[in-house]
């Protein structure tokens, strides 16, 4: 096994391209380990990550995307830095987003979000997923191949969330253009004009404007429900608070689901016998999606901050320490999963992965992502006899050439060219 003791996980490009040897290194006796370059406490073990996820009083989400080198504007001192952190939240990247909130603010905003993602709404949204899948396949299948991420997954996941939140279908082409995705579906050519610096910045303005409009003139649709939603205590959120929740659902839900879909299709094509087995036994598709999440979680890891001095797996963690929870490693913990590097859709504990997190911050979009995966795979199977990875783009089976996103938080392909019969 490679010794990664002196490797900088956060800057080494070879680790970003293939993280799993590094994860194996941690799981082999370093399930909680302070890496030497930034002083970040790396938590790789399944049990240890669960412990952190379930203890929001000790481990804060405030720095969830802040990075290994972020420094608070004041020095965090003492064995309990909770009050100091609260005074500095505005200085933390994404500090205005629900993913970085802690109770009681998180409780209120999550209550608002869950009021929007109801079982009834999810069922209606799934009906839209089937129609949308057919609509997009009508565009990409006739050509016999597509670059799956740009041509299908990116626009598909964006429009699924748009429908969930009640964005009228008449606004969908505008959303695709402003987000810079779905060019093939829209029939666009040439350079984009007027696209915001961040592809989802426009959502703040879109939803704030719509919420204000529908509070003045309610219409009885889903967006009106968003506009009239209240916090659990009965108070009315500011329009921008609702807009932030909606935009966060877009940004977090779209990116991770795109990576899930592309990984699932790659595995379907590359794992010997898997595609035929799933085609013949469609009831196994949900289990396959769970095993995909376990084996190659879209989230490599996310940060936490120790609010109080504590001990985890025998390792002392002083208050103020930056922690990185390695979701991508937990699915390969041999203490939890037998033969963890193998794809086994019939493993008995297939749903015990924690790719969607756990505790109060469990991903609220988990049912949505699972449904998207199932619908896309089923519809592709319905409308094709065979799906293949393009050898021209990625090389022959057994010697594939895949490029992965060079990040320390997200696991996913840059591109995936598929061919269809």
From TrEMBL:
InterPro entries: Cyt_P450 (IPR001128), Cyt_P450_B (IPR002397), Cyt_P450_CS (IPR017972), Cyt_P450_sf (IPR036396). GO terms for biological process: cholesterol catabolic process. One of its GO terms (molecular function) is cholest-4-en-3-one 26-monooxygenase activity. It holds the Pfam family p450. PROSITE patterns: CYTOCHROME_P450. Keywords: Heme, Iron, Metal-binding, Monooxygenase, Oxidoreductase. Belongs to the cytochrome P450 family. This is Cytochrome P450.
């Amino acid at each position: 096994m490679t010794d990664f003791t002196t490797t900088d996980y956060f800057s080494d490009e070879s680790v970003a391209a293939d993280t799993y040897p590094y994860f194996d290194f941690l799981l082999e006796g370093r399930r909680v380990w302070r890496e030497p370059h930034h002083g970040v406490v790396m938590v790789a073990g399944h049990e240890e990550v669960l412990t952190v996820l379930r203890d929001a009083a000790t481990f804060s989400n405030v720095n969830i995307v802040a990075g290994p080198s972020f420094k608070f504007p004041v020095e965090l001192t003492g064995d309990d830095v909770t009050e100091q952190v609260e005074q500095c939240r505005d200085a933390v990247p994404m500090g205005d987003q629900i993913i970085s909130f802690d109770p009681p603010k998180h409780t209120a905003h999550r209550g608002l979000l869950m009021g929007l993602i109801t079982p009834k709404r999810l069922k209606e949204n799934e009906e839209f997923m089937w129609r949308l899948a057919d609509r997009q396949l009508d565009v990409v299948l006739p050509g016999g191949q597509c670059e799956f991420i740009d041509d299908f997954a990116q626009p598909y996941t964006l429009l699924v969330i748009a429908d969930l939140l009640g964005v009228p279908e008449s606004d969908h082409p505008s959303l695709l253009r402003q987000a810079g995705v779905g060019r093939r579906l829209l029939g666009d050519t040439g350079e984009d004009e007027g696209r915001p610096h961040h592809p989802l910045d426009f959502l703040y303005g879109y939803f704030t404007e719509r919420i204000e409009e529908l509070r003045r003139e309610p219409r009885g649709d889903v967006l009106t429900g968003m506009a009239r939603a209240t916090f659990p205590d009965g108070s009315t959120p500011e329009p921008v608070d609702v807009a932030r929740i909606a935009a966060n659902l877009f940004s977090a839900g779209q990116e991770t689901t795109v990576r899930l879909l592309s990984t699932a299709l790659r595995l379907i094509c590359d794992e010997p016998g898997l595609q035929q087995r799933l085609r013949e036994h469609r009831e196994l598709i949900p289990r396959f999606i769970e095993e995909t999440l376990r084996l190659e979680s879209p989230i490599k890891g996310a940060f936490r901050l120790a609010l109080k001095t504590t001990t985890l797996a025998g390792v002392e963690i002083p208050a103020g320490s930056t922690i990185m929870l390695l979701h991508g490693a937990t699915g390969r913990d041999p203490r939890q999963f037998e033969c963890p590097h193998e794809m086994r859709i019939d493993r008995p504990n297939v749903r015990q992965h924690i790719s969607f997190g756990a505790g109060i911050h469990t991903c609220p979009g988990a049912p949505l992502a699972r449904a998207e995966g199932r619908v896309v795979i089923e519809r592709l199977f319905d409308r094709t006899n065979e799906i293949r990875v393009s050898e021209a783009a990625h090389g022959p089976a057994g010697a594939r050439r895949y490029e992965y996103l060079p990040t320390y938080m997200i696991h996913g392909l840059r591109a995936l060219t598929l061919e269809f019969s």
